[in-house]
Structure formats: C-alpha cells, structure tokens
Write a structure and sequence with these properties.
This protein is mainly alpha-helical. It is built from twelve helices and five strands. The relative contact order is 0.06.
C-alpha cells in the first residue's frame, strides 16, 4: 500500500496549488490509507476502500464531499479511478507446472548445450529490481567460485534509469540500491566470467555515471533533450556536433560508438534489423527444435 501512495502522491500534489489544497489532499490520503499502509493492495482491498470512502452509505458521505477545496476534490477523484483499475484486476496464481526457481534459472543459464531468452516482467518494479539483484549475484558468485566463463550470458535492462539511477535521482527504496549494485558489479567484473550487461533508456542523464563508464559499446539514437546530449557527449568523449546527425535518424538507425568492437574511435552510423522480427524467427526455430 505504501508504494501505491508514494506513487500517486506526486501526481496529486503537482502544479500550482495552494497550501489549503495540499493540506486537504494530504488529509484525505491519510484518512483513506493510514490504517492499511502495511497491507498489500489487492483488488478486494481496493474495492473495500472505494465503498468505504467514495460511496454514500448510512451515516457517511464520500470523502470528496468532506473536502473544502474544489481542486482537492477533483484530485482525490483520481485516487478513486486508480483504485477502480486495481479492483477490476484478477489475482491469479501461477500454475506449478510452469514455475521456475532461481536454481532452475541458474542451471539453464549455465547449460552450454542450448541458448535461451528469458523476459522478466512485473507490475511491481521493486520485485523486478530485487529479482535482478538475486539472480545476478547468484550467477556471478557461482561462476566466480567455480572458475566458469561460459556460456555467455547478457543481462539487459530496459528503462535502465529505473534500475541504476545516479545519486541525484536515487529514490529511498532499497531495491534501487540493490539493482544498481549488481549492475555495477557485472559491468566491472562480469566479463571475465562470461557475463555482460546491456542497458537501454531514453533518460541517459538519470543514469549512474560510474556504470556507464564501464560499458564498452554504445548505440545512440535520437536525443531530443539538450541535457541528455551533454551527458552522453561527456560520457562517450564526443562533441555535441557529432550527435546532431541523430536528429534525422529513423527506426533502426543508430550511432555506434565502440573502440573495442570497431577498433576506431570515430562513431559509425548503422542500420540495425528489427529486434522483434529476430526474436520471432528465433522462437520459430526454438519451437521446431523442441518438438
């Protein structure tokens, strides 16, 4: 519940609103959620909160009617909408036949007889960060202790600013620190054990610069924000003029910067095939071979 409140609070308090409006909103949030902060926000609990605080019942009025400020009333309606979205969701368990443990995952990643693609998603970003930290450390320590360096494994983090933010943008959640630490470790020490790291983000200026400096190959696309261009130019040793050509890039067009891979210090424009098409082709082959 605490994560839900922390997530919606900035939206409710954004913009130019007065002290009274902010006070009304904070009071309403406290009234709705205070006694449930340690609980998990399930569809059932969301539905209960809607009935308790947003619907008229015997002896009570909706919380919006108790607020003095019109703006506060409208913004607290946003809370109701978000709770309604959660209330519509179904909690479904995962069939035990398709579950995989950390040990199973490690065995798969260390199996030289086959290749694989594993996609990890969750509606709770904290869980993804914690999982990345646990799996990354388990694989790293296993290979370090056993002196193994194959098969090659690459951990790819999309929306990387959610996994390795710089100090200026670091939230209080411990999960951010854990995911940033394992990414930094793998970027610095993973190569000798056959473990690589790939990061993707549209907000490169938010990233931890120590880890960026450990990466050897960069693919740069459009950078519309000036601050991002300055950060990238500084990190990669480029001039801002070299980045201006990216303004005209279409899908699949990138500026490749890699002394390690190309042997030269000059950025090279490239055209990359559609990654989704390549994954579809791989899955067709995988399906055929697994029969």
């Amino acid at each position: 519940m605490e994560k839900f409140v922390d997530k919606i609070r900035p939206e409710l308090l954004s913009g130019s609103i007065g002290y009274n409006t902010k006070n009304d909103i904070e009071t309403a949030l406290k009234t709705i959620f205070e006694s449930h902060m340690s609980k998990k926000l399930t569809p059932q609990l969301a539905e209960s909160l809607i009935k308790t605080h947003f619907e008229t019942s015997f002896g009570t009025l909706p919380i919006t009617s108790q607020l003095k400020e019109k703006t506060a009333q409208k913004r607290i309606e946003i809370v109701k909408e978000k709770l309604q979205e959660i209330a519509k969701e179904k909690e479904e368990g995962i069939n035990s036949n398709i579950q995989i443990s950390i040990m199973d995952a490690l065995n798969e990643l260390n199996d030289k007889s086959k290749s694989g693609l594993y996609i990890v998603i969750s509606h709770d970003p904290d869980k993804i960060r914690e999982f990345a930290n646990k799996l990354g450390w388990e694989l790293f320590e296993h290979r370090r202790k056993n002196g193994k360096f194959d098969p090659l494994v690459c951990f790819v983090f999309d929306e990387a600013d959610e996994f390795m933010p710089g100090e200026t943008y670091m939230p209080k959640n411990e999960s951010y620190k854990r995911s940033r630490k394992i990414i930094e470790t793998l970027a610095r020490r993973g190569r000798k054990f056959g473990i690589g790291v790939g990061i993707a983000t549209q907000r490169s200026s938010y990233l931890d610069t120590k880890t960026i400096g450990q990466l050897h190959t960069y693919f740069i696309s459009k950078l519309p924000r000036e601050h991002d261009r300055k950060v990238v130019a500084g990190a990669f040793g480029l001039s801002e003029d070299q980045l201006t050509q990216t303004f005209k890039f279409q899908k699949g067009q990138w500026l490749l910067v890699s002394h390690e891979a190309t042997g030269i210090d000059m950025p090279i424009p490239i055209q990359a095939p559609n990654a989704e098409d390549r994954i579809r082709e791989y899955l067709k082959v995988f399906k055929h071979e697994s029969k």
